[in-house]
Amino acid sequence: MNFFGSKFGKGKSKKDGSLKPLWLSHPFVEATLVNGSLRKVVAAPRYVDINEWLAVNTFDFFNYTNLFYGAIAEFCTPQQCPVMCAGPSTEYTWTDGQRRTVKIPAPQYVDYVMTWIQNVLNDETVFPTKSGQEFPREFQTAIRSIFKQLFRIFAHIYHHHYDKLLHVSAEGHLNTLFAHFICFAREFDLVDRKEIAPMAEFIAELEQSQRI
């Protein structure tokens, strides 16, 4: 039984007859904490090193994404989410230590991702914190890998756990964070276009409302 469905419904139908998800339905699609575009917020300040700006924001996005996933983690179980996916047409696989591509339950996938990102953030050879240390040549490649994985967690939350966040009235917070994330990723070319497909409709809504 869907406890949340009785309160929030299942969304309106699209033109093709399929059911529109809650996060694309009014008024939830319009929920936000910030009016206007986030472009000025994501632009690197003058005289700030670009890698420093990427590092600080990546750290923040990681922590905030982790908080949102933590809010729905009890509902994201191997039984409820036996594979890591974002809707019926997008499944994500994990590459293990032997370079094998495997399907694993969503909570295990997220745990692997968050542990990996935390280890990268703690690695002084990638994210230097001491004065005089330089960022490595492959630093922005590492940032893109982190953003790809964070995007997948966002997509999973929206497609499979958005109703739980509605129950605690957190949709405006999630929508604002996601808009900030996408705006930042676009500003610095951090997420491939093919990767955003599961959230393309919502991103189009953000564009239309001039939030990104």
Structural class: mainly alpha
Q: In terms of per-residue confidence, which ranges show pLDDT below 50 for 5 or more consecutive residues?
A: 1-10
Overall form:
globular
Which range best describes the helical content: under 10%, 10-25%, 25-40%, 40-55%, 55-70% or over 70%? 40-55%
- How many DSSP E strands? 4
Mean pLDDT: 90
CATH class call: Mainly Alpha
End-to-end C-alpha gap: 36 Å
Radius of gyration over C-alpha positions, nearest whole angstrom: 18 Å
Order of helices and strands: HHHEEEEHHHH
The proportion of residues in beta strands is under 5%
Q: What is the CATH architecture descriptor? A: Up-down Bundle
How many helices? The count is: 7
- What order do the strands of the largest sheet run in, or round the barrel if closed? 1-2
Tally the structural domains.
1
Largest sheet: 2 strands, antiparallel
Descriptive labels:
two-stranded antiparallel sheet; two-stranded antiparallel ribbon; mainly alpha; globular; Butyryl-CoA Dehydrogenase, subunit A, domain 3; single chain; MOB_kinase_act_fam; 212 residues; 7 helices; disordered N terminus
Please outline the helices and strands:
Layout: H1 5-8, H2 39-42, H3 50-72, E1 84-85, E2 91-92, E3 94-95, E4 101-102, H4 106-122, H5 139-167, H6 171-187, H7 200-208
Antiparallel strand pairs: 1-2, 3-4
